[in-house]
């Protein structure tokens, strides 16, 4: 028996940045659930990754599923995002799930804003948030009632410590606001919009930006004492694309190994209570209950 009631066979998922890491795992899990997959990659830098991901999808897809496609694209620019969507529509005729995953980051070793140049800042924002706007804008023209958009933010949007990725964390905070606002905007169209905020996860992105010392420590500050793997994150994307999450929109899932040490966050982002510990959270709840009970008693006395 399947855990999730995902898309019926033949539904189309466009996974932006699906060639490696979390994106590749999402493609694999979606293919196992019967979806038809299109994903993007950066030509020249990720050609081998894209070929490997295509092989994985073809080996994993359900019998009768349409063959996947890999689309090379620089998603920092609106025109390129439109071309990606147009290619998917020409091939499959529609888009049922849009997964936004593109990301680039640079480690700021000096903790100084001087290290973040204008060129670098523009590249980070264009990759990490402009692409989400552009792809979503063009994909929405072909998405129908029941479709889903899933954005990828980060634990660093909620707890930007250490401040080594200040430009990166800024974009991840923007993605949270984009997700919430877009969800409200699309409610009447019955298109759901949610997000996933992974904690420290082993992906090629980490290996490309961290030095040897930081790689050795990566994930060690998490209470689970390890970084996660992409296959531990992908099920969140499956759930949010499934009918099992039909009453969830404007939310962010947090598969992070309890990486938020100073902020208590529940499974759904907008129900979080700021507190330094679970004990403080319980204390706040008890005070609220006490105030409500006292108010009820006062109403009884006044009306008696």
TrEMBL record:
Keywords: Membrane, Oxidoreductase, Transmembrane, Transmembrane helix. The keyword Membrane applies. The chain crosses the membrane at residues 282-302. It comes from Artemisia annua (Sweet wormwood). It holds the Pfam family adh_short_C2. The keyword Membrane applies. One of its GO terms (molecular function) is oxidoreductase activity, acting on the CH-OH group of donors, NAD or NADP as acceptor. Belongs to the short-chain dehydrogenases/reductases (SDR) family. InterPro entries: NAD(P)-bd_dom_sf, Sc_DH/Rdtase_CS, SDR_fam. This is Glucose/ribitol dehydrogenase. Signal peptide: none annotated. It comes from the Eukaryota.
């Amino acid at each position: 028996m399947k855990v999730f009631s995902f898309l019926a066979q033949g539904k189309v998922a466009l996974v932006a940045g699906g060639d490696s890491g979390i994106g590749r795992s999402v493609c694999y899990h979606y293919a196992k659930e019967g979806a038809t997959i299109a994903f993007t990659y950066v030509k020249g830098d990720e050609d081998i990754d894209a070929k490997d991901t295509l092989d994985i999808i073809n080996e994993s897809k359900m019998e009768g599923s349409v063959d996947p496609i890999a689309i090379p694209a620089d998603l920092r620019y609106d025109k390129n995002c439109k071309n990606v969507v147009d290619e998917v529509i020409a091939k499959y005729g529609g888009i049922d799930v849009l997964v936004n995953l593109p990301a680039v980051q640079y480690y700021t070793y000096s903790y100084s804003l001087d290290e973040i140049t204008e060129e670098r800042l523009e590249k980070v924002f264009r990759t990490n948030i402009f692409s989400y706007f552009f792809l979503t804008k063009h994909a929405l023209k072909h998405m129908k009632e029941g479709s889903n958009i899933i954005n990828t933010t980060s634990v660093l949007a909620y707890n930007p410590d250490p401040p080594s990725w200040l430009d990166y964390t800024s974009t991840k905070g923007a993605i949270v606001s984009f997700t919430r606002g877009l969800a409200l905007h699309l409610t009447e169209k019955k298109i759901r919009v949610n997000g996933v905020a992974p904690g420290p996860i082993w992906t090629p992105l980490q290996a490309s930006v961290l030095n040897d010392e930081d790689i050795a420590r990566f994930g060690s500050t998490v209470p689970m004492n390890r970084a996660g793997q992409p296959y531990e994150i992908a099920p969140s994307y499956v759930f949010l694309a499934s009918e099992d999450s039909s009453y969830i929109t404007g939310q962010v899932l947090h598969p992070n190994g309890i990486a938020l040490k100073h902020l208590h966050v529940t499974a759904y982002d907008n129900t979080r209570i700021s507190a330094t510990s679970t004990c403080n959270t319980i204390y706040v709840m008890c005070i609220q209950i006490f105030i409500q009970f006292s108010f009820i008693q006062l109403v009884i006395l006044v009306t008696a």
